[in-house]
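ingest -> validate -> predict -> emit
validate: passed (alphabet ok, no gaps, 500 aa)
predict: started
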Amino acid sequence: MSVPAVMLTGMTEDEFWALLETCRPSAPDPEADHLAPALTDHLAAGPVPVVTGFAEQLSRALYRLDRREFGEDLSADAFLYTRAAVVAAGRAEYERVLADPARFRRYATEYVWAEALLYVPDQAYERLTGETWDRATAHSYESYSHTEGWADPTEERAAPTGRRTYGRTDAQADGQTDTPADGQADTPARDSRPDSGPETGPETGPETGPETGPETGPETGPETAGRAWLPPARTPPMTSDELCLTVLGSATPYPAVDNPCSGYLVSGQGARVWVDAGTGTLGPLQRHVALGELDAIWISHLHADHCADLLTAYYAALYADIELDAPIPLYGPPGTLDRLAHFLTNTASRSPVEEAFAFHALHDGHQARVGDLVLTSRTVAHGIPAFALRVESAGRSLVYSGDTAPCAELTHLARGCDLLLCEAESAAVPTGEEPVHHTPEDAGDTARTAGAAQLVVTHVGRFLTPEQAVDRASRRFAGPVEYAAPGARFAVGQPASQSR
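emit:
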Protein backbone atom coordinates (compact mmCIF):
# COMPACT_ATOMS: atom_id res chain seq x y z
CA MET A 1 0.00 0.00 0.00
CA SER A 2 1.48 3.36 -0.96
CA VAL A 3 1.60 6.25 1.49
CA PRO A 4 0.00 9.49 0.31
CA ALA A 5 2.32 12.45 0.10
CA VAL A 6 2.73 13.79 3.62
CA MET A 7 2.08 17.45 4.17
CA LEU A 8 5.07 19.42 5.40
CA THR A 9 2.86 20.86 8.10
CA GLY A 10 2.23 17.48 9.72
CA MET A 11 0.26 14.33 9.04
CA THR A 12 -3.40 13.78 8.36
CA GLU A 13 -5.42 11.00 9.93
CA ASP A 14 -5.55 9.13 6.60
CA GLU A 15 -1.79 9.42 6.22
CA PHE A 16 -1.28 8.11 9.75
CA TRP A 17 -3.28 4.96 9.14
CA ALA A 18 -1.75 4.47 5.69
CA LEU A 19 1.74 4.63 7.19
CA LEU A 20 0.86 1.96 9.73
CA GLU A 21 -0.31 -0.31 6.93
CA THR A 22 2.80 0.32 4.85
CA CYS A 23 5.14 -0.54 7.73
CA ARG A 24 3.15 -3.55 8.96
CA PRO A 25 5.02 -6.87 8.56
CA SER A 26 3.42 -9.71 6.65
CA ALA A 27 3.60 -12.04 9.67
CA PRO A 28 1.34 -11.54 12.69
CA ASP A 29 2.72 -8.81 14.94
CA PRO A 30 0.05 -8.05 17.56
CA GLU A 31 2.43 -6.30 19.96
CA ALA A 32 4.12 -4.18 17.26
CA ASP A 33 7.55 -5.69 17.89
CA HIS A 34 8.35 -5.32 14.18
CA LEU A 35 5.92 -2.56 13.29
CA ALA A 36 7.41 -0.08 15.76
CA PRO A 37 11.02 -0.28 14.46
CA ALA A 38 9.76 -0.03 10.87
CA LEU A 39 7.77 3.08 11.71
CA THR A 40 10.74 4.58 13.50
CA ASP A 41 13.00 3.97 10.49
CA HIS A 42 10.47 5.58 8.17
CA LEU A 43 9.86 8.64 10.33
CA ALA A 44 13.56 9.13 11.10
CA ALA A 45 14.04 10.05 7.44
CA GLY A 46 12.19 13.29 8.21
CA PRO A 47 11.17 15.96 7.99
CA VAL A 48 10.47 16.86 11.61
CA PRO A 49 6.85 17.96 10.97
CA VAL A 50 6.10 14.41 9.83
CA VAL A 51 7.33 13.06 13.17
CA THR A 52 5.36 15.61 15.18
CA GLY A 53 2.30 14.98 13.02
CA PHE A 54 2.57 11.24 13.67
CA ALA A 55 2.76 11.91 17.41
CA GLU A 56 -0.36 14.05 17.25
CA GLN A 57 -2.34 11.43 15.34
CA LEU A 58 -1.17 8.67 17.67
CA SER A 59 -2.18 10.69 20.72
CA ARG A 60 -5.60 11.35 19.20
CA ALA A 61 -6.17 7.66 18.40
CA LEU A 62 -5.22 6.65 21.95
CA TYR A 63 -7.34 9.43 23.42
CA ARG A 64 -10.47 8.30 21.58
CA LEU A 65 -10.16 4.89 23.27
CA ASP A 66 -9.64 6.40 26.71
CA ARG A 67 -13.17 5.75 27.91
CA ARG A 68 -14.78 4.03 30.85
CA GLU A 69 -16.43 1.34 28.73
CA PHE A 70 -13.01 0.20 27.53
CA GLY A 71 -10.79 0.66 30.57
CA GLU A 72 -12.99 -0.12 33.56
CA ASP A 73 -11.10 -2.36 36.01
CA LEU A 74 -7.79 -2.10 34.11
CA SER A 75 -4.62 -0.67 35.62
CA ALA A 76 -3.32 2.53 34.03
CA ASP A 77 -0.42 0.76 32.34
CA ALA A 78 -2.41 -2.22 31.11
CA PHE A 79 -5.05 0.12 29.68
CA LEU A 80 -2.46 2.26 27.90
CA TYR A 81 -0.60 -0.69 26.36
CA THR A 82 -3.85 -2.36 25.31
CA ARG A 83 -5.07 0.82 23.61
CA ALA A 84 -1.75 0.93 21.75
CA ALA A 85 -2.33 -2.65 20.55
CA VAL A 86 -5.71 -1.70 19.13
CA VAL A 87 -4.11 1.19 17.24
CA ALA A 88 -1.36 -1.12 15.99
CA ALA A 89 -4.00 -3.50 14.64
CA GLY A 90 -4.92 -0.95 11.96
CA ARG A 91 -7.74 1.35 11.07
CA ALA A 92 -10.42 -1.21 10.27
CA GLU A 93 -9.97 -3.07 13.55
CA TYR A 94 -9.65 0.19 15.46
CA GLU A 95 -13.02 1.38 14.17
CA ARG A 96 -14.61 -1.97 14.98
CA VAL A 97 -13.33 -1.75 18.55
CA LEU A 98 -14.63 1.80 18.91
CA ALA A 99 -18.05 0.58 17.87
CA ASP A 100 -18.00 -2.55 20.04
CA PRO A 101 -16.25 -2.36 23.44
CA ALA A 102 -16.55 -6.14 23.77
CA ARG A 103 -13.82 -6.45 21.13
CA PHE A 104 -11.53 -4.41 23.36
CA ARG A 105 -11.97 -6.87 26.22
CA ARG A 106 -10.39 -9.60 24.10
CA TYR A 107 -7.20 -7.55 23.84
CA ALA A 108 -7.28 -6.84 27.57
CA THR A 109 -7.95 -10.38 28.77
CA GLU A 110 -5.33 -11.87 26.43
CA TYR A 111 -2.74 -9.24 27.43
CA VAL A 112 -2.17 -8.02 23.89
CA TRP A 113 0.05 -5.01 24.44
CA ALA A 114 1.86 -2.81 21.92
CA GLU A 115 3.91 -0.68 24.27
CA ALA A 116 6.65 -0.28 21.63
CA LEU A 117 4.34 1.86 19.51
CA LEU A 118 4.33 4.57 22.19
CA TYR A 119 8.03 5.33 21.77
CA VAL A 120 8.12 5.58 17.97
CA PRO A 121 7.87 9.39 17.61
CA ASP A 122 10.35 10.08 20.42
CA GLN A 123 12.92 7.69 18.98
CA ALA A 124 12.44 8.95 15.44
CA TYR A 125 12.82 12.55 16.57
CA GLU A 126 16.04 11.80 18.42
CA ARG A 127 17.52 9.95 15.44
CA LEU A 128 16.52 12.77 13.10
CA THR A 129 17.70 15.69 15.21
CA GLY A 130 20.19 14.20 17.66
CA GLU A 131 18.18 15.73 20.48
CA THR A 132 15.75 14.37 23.06
CA TRP A 133 12.23 15.55 22.35
CA ASP A 134 10.54 17.19 25.30
CA ARG A 135 7.32 16.97 23.42
CA ALA A 136 3.75 17.90 24.13
CA THR A 137 0.81 16.64 22.11
CA ALA A 138 -2.72 17.99 22.02
CA HIS A 139 -3.97 14.87 23.79
CA SER A 140 -2.30 12.94 26.56
CA TYR A 141 -1.32 9.32 26.02
CA GLU A 142 -2.07 8.64 29.66
CA SER A 143 -4.96 6.55 30.89
CA TYR A 144 -7.93 8.39 32.40
CA SER A 145 -6.99 11.75 30.83
CA HIS A 146 -10.16 11.87 28.70
CA THR A 147 -12.43 13.46 31.28
CA GLU A 148 -15.65 13.14 29.30
CA GLY A 149 -14.88 9.53 28.42
CA TRP A 150 -14.63 8.68 32.10
CA ALA A 151 -17.70 10.61 33.26
CA ASP A 152 -20.00 8.34 35.24
CA PRO A 153 -23.54 8.79 33.92
CA THR A 154 -25.05 7.72 37.24
CA GLU A 155 -22.66 9.22 39.75
CA GLU A 156 -20.49 12.29 39.85
CA ARG A 157 -17.03 11.02 40.54
CA ALA A 158 -13.64 11.52 38.99
CA ALA A 159 -11.73 9.00 36.97
CA PRO A 160 -9.31 6.86 38.97
CA THR A 161 -6.28 8.63 40.39
CA GLY A 162 -3.05 7.45 41.93
CA ARG A 163 -1.27 7.07 38.58
CA ARG A 164 1.84 8.54 37.00
CA THR A 165 1.86 11.27 34.42
CA TYR A 166 3.43 10.47 31.08
CA GLY A 167 7.08 10.02 31.88
CA ARG A 168 7.33 12.53 34.70
CA THR A 169 6.54 13.01 38.34
CA ASP A 170 5.31 16.42 39.37
CA ALA A 171 8.86 17.29 40.44
CA GLN A 172 10.17 16.32 37.01
CA ALA A 173 7.52 18.38 35.30
CA ASP A 174 8.79 21.35 37.32
CA GLY A 175 12.31 20.71 36.12
CA GLN A 176 13.61 19.40 39.44
CA THR A 177 14.73 16.02 38.16
CA ASP A 178 15.53 14.40 34.87
CA THR A 179 13.74 11.47 33.30
CA PRO A 180 16.52 8.90 32.79
CA ALA A 181 15.25 7.57 29.50
CA ASP A 182 15.56 7.85 25.78
CA GLY A 183 14.21 4.92 23.86
CA GLN A 184 11.96 1.98 24.22
CA ALA A 185 11.13 0.54 27.61
CA ASP A 186 9.74 -2.75 28.84
CA THR A 187 8.96 -3.39 32.50
CA PRO A 188 8.88 -7.06 33.45
CA ALA A 189 6.98 -8.14 36.51
CA ARG A 190 7.05 -11.83 36.04
CA ASP A 191 4.27 -12.94 38.33
CA SER A 192 1.48 -10.86 36.86
CA ARG A 193 1.35 -11.70 33.15
CA PRO A 194 2.28 -15.35 33.00
CA ASP A 195 1.03 -16.24 29.56
CA SER A 196 2.26 -13.54 27.26
CA GLY A 197 5.03 -11.31 28.55
CA PRO A 198 5.69 -8.40 30.84
CA GLU A 199 3.31 -6.63 33.14
CA THR A 200 4.07 -3.52 35.10
CA GLY A 201 1.71 -3.73 38.00
CA PRO A 202 -0.93 -5.87 39.62
CA GLU A 203 -4.27 -6.08 37.89
CA THR A 204 -6.09 -4.67 40.85
CA GLY A 205 -7.08 -1.31 39.46
CA PRO A 206 -5.46 1.78 38.14
CA GLU A 207 -3.14 2.49 41.05
CA THR A 208 0.22 1.10 39.90
CA GLY A 209 2.83 3.13 41.67
CA PRO A 210 3.57 6.13 43.83
CA GLU A 211 1.13 8.95 43.40
CA THR A 212 2.55 11.79 41.39
CA GLY A 213 -0.17 14.36 41.68
CA PRO A 214 -2.99 15.53 43.90
CA GLU A 215 -6.16 13.55 44.22
CA THR A 216 -8.07 15.84 41.94
CA GLY A 217 -8.95 13.57 39.06
CA PRO A 218 -7.46 13.18 35.61
CA GLU A 219 -4.92 15.58 34.21
CA THR A 220 -5.56 16.69 30.68
CA GLY A 221 -3.73 18.52 27.97
CA PRO A 222 -0.13 18.62 26.88
CA GLU A 223 1.24 19.03 30.39
CA THR A 224 0.87 15.28 30.90
CA ALA A 225 3.03 14.50 27.91
CA GLY A 226 6.77 14.35 28.18
CA ARG A 227 10.00 12.75 27.27
CA ALA A 228 10.40 9.06 26.45
CA TRP A 229 8.43 7.32 29.14
CA LEU A 230 9.37 4.70 31.67
CA PRO A 231 6.35 3.07 33.25
CA PRO A 232 6.25 2.53 36.99
CA ALA A 233 7.97 -0.71 37.80
CA ARG A 234 7.00 -3.42 40.19
CA THR A 235 10.08 -3.46 42.38
CA PRO A 236 11.33 -6.74 43.86
CA PRO A 237 12.15 -7.03 47.54
CA MET A 238 15.02 -4.71 48.43
CA THR A 239 18.36 -6.39 49.13
CA SER A 240 20.80 -3.56 48.33
CA ASP A 241 20.31 -0.03 47.14
CA GLU A 242 23.74 0.33 45.53
CA LEU A 243 24.35 -0.53 41.88
CA CYS A 244 26.77 -3.47 41.88
CA LEU A 245 28.61 -5.55 39.31
CA THR A 246 29.62 -9.10 40.27
CA VAL A 247 31.88 -11.00 37.88
CA LEU A 248 30.74 -14.59 37.36
CA GLY A 249 33.35 -15.24 34.69
CA SER A 250 35.44 -13.40 32.10
CA ALA A 251 37.37 -16.03 30.13
CA THR A 252 37.31 -16.42 26.34
CA PRO A 253 36.70 -18.30 24.11
CA TYR A 254 36.40 -21.25 26.51
CA PRO A 255 36.40 -21.49 30.30
CA ALA A 256 39.61 -21.63 32.28
CA VAL A 257 39.97 -24.05 35.18
CA ASP A 258 39.03 -21.31 37.63
CA ASN A 259 37.28 -18.83 35.35
CA PRO A 260 34.03 -19.38 33.40
CA CYS A 261 33.33 -17.46 30.21
CA SER A 262 31.64 -14.05 30.14
CA GLY A 263 28.86 -13.59 32.66
CA TYR A 264 27.98 -10.93 35.21
CA LEU A 265 25.35 -10.27 37.83
CA VAL A 266 24.16 -6.66 37.88
CA SER A 267 22.09 -5.75 40.90
CA GLY A 268 20.62 -2.66 42.46
CA GLN A 269 17.51 -1.46 44.26
CA GLY A 270 16.61 -5.13 44.81
CA ALA A 271 16.63 -6.08 41.11
CA ARG A 272 19.01 -8.73 39.72
CA VAL A 273 19.96 -9.20 36.07
CA TRP A 274 22.17 -11.95 34.65
CA VAL A 275 24.18 -10.18 31.94
CA ASP A 276 25.58 -12.69 29.43
CA ALA A 277 25.29 -16.38 30.18
CA GLY A 278 28.67 -17.60 29.02
CA THR A 279 29.83 -21.18 29.45
CA GLY A 280 30.03 -22.12 33.11
CA THR A 281 28.45 -18.99 34.60
CA LEU A 282 25.23 -20.58 35.83
CA GLY A 283 27.15 -22.26 38.65
CA PRO A 284 28.67 -19.15 40.26
CA LEU A 285 25.46 -17.22 39.60
CA GLN A 286 23.77 -19.42 42.20
CA ARG A 287 26.17 -18.21 44.91
CA HIS A 288 24.33 -14.91 44.70
CA VAL A 289 20.82 -15.61 43.44
CA ALA A 290 18.75 -18.63 42.46
CA LEU A 291 17.83 -18.86 38.80
CA GLY A 292 14.14 -18.58 39.65
CA GLU A 293 14.76 -15.36 41.60
CA LEU A 294 16.31 -13.48 38.68
CA ASP A 295 14.40 -10.49 37.40
CA ALA A 296 15.81 -10.68 33.87
CA ILE A 297 18.55 -12.08 31.65
CA TRP A 298 20.33 -9.90 29.06
CA ILE A 299 22.45 -11.43 26.25
CA SER A 300 24.87 -9.35 24.17
CA HIS A 301 25.24 -11.74 21.23
CA LEU A 302 24.93 -15.39 20.31
CA HIS A 303 28.52 -16.61 20.45
CA ALA A 304 28.70 -19.57 22.82
CA ASP A 305 31.07 -17.92 25.29
CA HIS A 306 28.30 -15.39 26.00
CA CYS A 307 25.11 -17.46 25.86
CA ALA A 308 25.79 -21.20 26.14
CA ASP A 309 24.49 -21.50 29.70
CA LEU A 310 21.03 -20.53 28.50
CA LEU A 311 20.81 -24.18 27.44
CA THR A 312 21.34 -25.51 30.94
CA ALA A 313 19.24 -22.70 32.41
CA TYR A 314 16.37 -23.98 30.25
CA TYR A 315 16.63 -27.46 31.76
CA ALA A 316 16.95 -26.02 35.25
CA ALA A 317 13.87 -23.85 34.79
CA LEU A 318 11.59 -26.55 33.44
CA TYR A 319 12.88 -29.98 34.48
CA ALA A 320 14.53 -29.65 37.88
CA ASP A 321 13.86 -28.29 41.35
CA ILE A 322 13.22 -24.69 40.28
CA GLU A 323 9.64 -23.46 40.20
CA LEU A 324 9.04 -20.34 38.13
CA ASP A 325 6.08 -18.08 38.80
CA ALA A 326 6.34 -17.12 35.13
CA PRO A 327 8.92 -17.28 32.34
CA ILE A 328 12.09 -15.29 33.03
CA PRO A 329 12.28 -12.10 30.92
CA LEU A 330 15.09 -12.63 28.41
CA TYR A 331 16.52 -9.77 26.34
CA GLY A 332 18.73 -10.76 23.43
CA PRO A 333 19.43 -10.45 19.71
CA PRO A 334 16.59 -11.31 17.33
CA GLY A 335 16.29 -15.06 16.83
CA THR A 336 17.65 -16.03 20.24
CA LEU A 337 14.75 -18.31 21.15
CA ASP A 338 14.74 -20.01 17.76
CA ARG A 339 18.47 -20.76 18.15
CA LEU A 340 17.83 -22.26 21.57
CA ALA A 341 14.87 -24.28 20.36
CA HIS A 342 16.81 -25.58 17.35
CA PHE A 343 19.50 -26.95 19.64
CA LEU A 344 17.19 -28.25 22.35
CA THR A 345 14.52 -29.91 20.17
CA ASN A 346 15.02 -33.66 19.90
CA THR A 347 11.60 -34.79 18.69
CA ALA A 348 8.98 -33.67 16.20
CA SER A 349 7.69 -31.20 18.79
CA ARG A 350 9.57 -27.95 19.29
CA SER A 351 11.05 -27.60 22.76
CA PRO A 352 8.89 -25.22 24.84
CA VAL A 353 11.55 -22.56 25.34
CA GLU A 354 8.84 -19.92 25.75
CA GLU A 355 7.82 -21.61 29.01
CA ALA A 356 11.26 -20.87 30.43
CA PHE A 357 11.94 -17.46 28.87
CA ALA A 358 9.73 -14.49 27.98
CA PHE A 359 11.75 -13.14 25.08
CA HIS A 360 12.22 -9.50 24.05
CA ALA A 361 14.28 -8.85 20.92
CA LEU A 362 16.91 -6.16 21.23
CA HIS A 363 17.43 -3.43 18.64
CA ASP A 364 19.54 -0.30 18.53
CA GLY A 365 18.24 2.05 21.21
CA HIS A 366 16.12 -0.61 22.92
CA GLN A 367 15.32 0.29 26.50
CA ALA A 368 13.89 -1.80 29.30
CA ARG A 369 13.16 -1.22 32.94
CA VAL A 370 13.76 -4.02 35.43
CA GLY A 371 12.71 -2.92 38.88
CA ASP A 372 14.47 0.41 39.29
CA LEU A 373 17.24 -0.51 36.83
CA VAL A 374 17.05 1.15 33.41
CA LEU A 375 18.68 -0.94 30.65
CA THR A 376 19.62 0.72 27.36
CA SER A 377 21.10 -1.30 24.48
CA ARG A 378 23.06 -0.14 21.44
CA THR A 379 24.26 -2.11 18.44
CA VAL A 380 28.04 -2.52 18.26
CA ALA A 381 30.65 -3.74 15.74
CA HIS A 382 31.24 -7.49 16.11
CA GLY A 383 30.45 -8.87 12.67
CA ILE A 384 27.15 -10.38 13.86
CA PRO A 385 24.17 -8.83 15.64
CA ALA A 386 25.69 -7.68 18.92
CA PHE A 387 24.82 -5.17 21.61
CA ALA A 388 26.36 -3.13 24.40
CA LEU A 389 24.45 -2.30 27.56
CA ARG A 390 24.09 0.70 29.85
CA VAL A 391 22.48 0.14 33.27
CA GLU A 392 21.36 3.14 35.31
CA SER A 393 19.99 3.32 38.82
CA ALA A 394 19.72 6.13 41.38
CA GLY A 395 22.14 8.35 39.52
CA ARG A 396 24.77 5.61 38.98
CA SER A 397 25.66 4.12 35.61
CA LEU A 398 27.43 0.99 34.40
CA VAL A 399 28.24 0.28 30.74
CA TYR A 400 29.17 -3.16 29.36
CA SER A 401 30.75 -3.34 25.92
CA GLY A 402 29.79 -6.91 25.08
CA ASP A 403 32.11 -8.01 22.26
CA THR A 404 32.95 -5.24 19.80
CA ALA A 405 35.60 -3.32 17.99
CA PRO A 406 35.89 0.32 19.00
CA CYS A 407 32.83 2.13 17.66
CA ALA A 408 30.98 5.41 18.07
CA GLU A 409 27.88 3.68 19.42
CA LEU A 410 29.76 2.25 22.39
CA THR A 411 31.54 5.54 23.10
CA HIS A 412 28.24 7.41 23.01
CA LEU A 413 26.53 4.84 25.25
CA ALA A 414 29.40 5.02 27.77
CA ARG A 415 29.51 8.80 27.93
CA GLY A 416 29.98 9.94 31.52
CA CYS A 417 29.42 6.48 33.02
CA ASP A 418 30.69 5.60 36.48
CA LEU A 419 32.14 2.26 35.37
CA LEU A 420 32.94 0.91 31.91
CA LEU A 421 33.27 -2.88 31.72
CA CYS A 422 35.11 -3.22 28.41
CA GLU A 423 36.42 -6.25 26.60
CA ALA A 424 40.14 -6.41 25.75
CA GLU A 425 40.37 -9.62 23.78
CA SER A 426 42.94 -8.76 21.14
CA ALA A 427 46.66 -8.63 21.79
CA ALA A 428 47.06 -6.61 18.59
CA VAL A 429 44.90 -5.01 15.92
CA PRO A 430 44.39 -7.57 13.13
CA THR A 431 45.90 -6.83 9.73
CA GLY A 432 43.94 -7.21 6.53
CA GLU A 433 40.56 -7.64 8.19
CA GLU A 434 38.03 -5.61 10.13
CA PRO A 435 38.58 -5.78 13.88
CA VAL A 436 35.78 -7.25 15.99
CA HIS A 437 37.38 -6.77 19.41
CA HIS A 438 39.20 -4.16 21.49
CA THR A 439 42.86 -4.27 22.32
CA PRO A 440 43.72 -3.08 25.84
CA GLU A 441 44.78 0.24 24.32
CA ASP A 442 41.43 0.47 22.57
CA ALA A 443 39.68 -0.13 25.88
CA GLY A 444 41.65 2.70 27.45
CA ASP A 445 40.87 4.99 24.52
CA THR A 446 37.15 4.21 24.69
CA ALA A 447 37.08 4.91 28.43
CA ARG A 448 38.98 8.18 28.01
CA THR A 449 36.90 9.44 25.08
CA ALA A 450 33.65 8.53 26.82
CA GLY A 451 34.69 10.24 30.04
CA ALA A 452 34.20 7.10 32.12
CA ALA A 453 35.15 7.35 35.78
CA GLN A 454 36.53 3.80 36.06
CA LEU A 455 37.57 1.08 33.59
CA VAL A 456 37.34 -2.65 34.24
CA VAL A 457 38.87 -4.79 31.47
CA THR A 458 37.27 -8.15 30.80
CA HIS A 459 37.20 -10.89 28.15
CA VAL A 460 41.00 -10.76 28.04
CA GLY A 461 42.24 -13.02 25.23
CA ARG A 462 44.47 -16.06 25.55
CA PHE A 463 47.52 -14.21 24.21
CA LEU A 464 47.39 -11.65 27.02
CA THR A 465 47.62 -11.82 30.78
CA PRO A 466 45.28 -9.78 32.95
CA GLU A 467 48.27 -7.82 34.23
CA GLN A 468 49.31 -6.93 30.69
CA ALA A 469 45.78 -5.87 29.78
CA VAL A 470 45.51 -3.57 32.81
CA ASP A 471 48.96 -2.09 32.23
CA ARG A 472 48.40 -1.41 28.54
CA ALA A 473 44.93 0.07 29.08
CA SER A 474 46.33 2.32 31.82
CA ARG A 475 48.68 3.94 29.33
CA ARG A 476 45.67 5.39 27.53
CA PHE A 477 43.30 6.05 30.44
CA ALA A 478 44.28 8.06 33.50
CA GLY A 479 41.49 6.81 35.75
CA PRO A 480 41.48 3.61 37.81
CA VAL A 481 41.81 0.42 35.74
CA GLU A 482 41.07 -3.04 37.13
CA TYR A 483 40.61 -6.57 35.83
CA ALA A 484 37.30 -8.44 35.94
CA ALA A 485 38.57 -11.35 37.99
CA PRO A 486 36.01 -14.09 38.64
CA GLY A 487 34.21 -13.38 41.89
CA ALA A 488 35.17 -9.70 41.93
CA ARG A 489 32.48 -7.28 42.99
CA PHE A 490 32.40 -3.60 42.04
CA ALA A 491 30.22 -1.01 43.76
CA VAL A 492 29.42 1.26 40.83
CA GLY A 493 30.10 4.91 41.50
CA GLN A 494 32.15 4.16 44.60
CA PRO A 495 35.93 4.58 44.89
CA ALA A 496 37.87 1.68 43.43
CA SER A 497 39.06 0.76 46.92
CA GLN A 498 35.48 -0.03 47.86
CA SER A 499 35.20 -2.60 45.10
CA ARG A 500 36.12 -6.12 46.07
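The longest strand covers residues 271-277.
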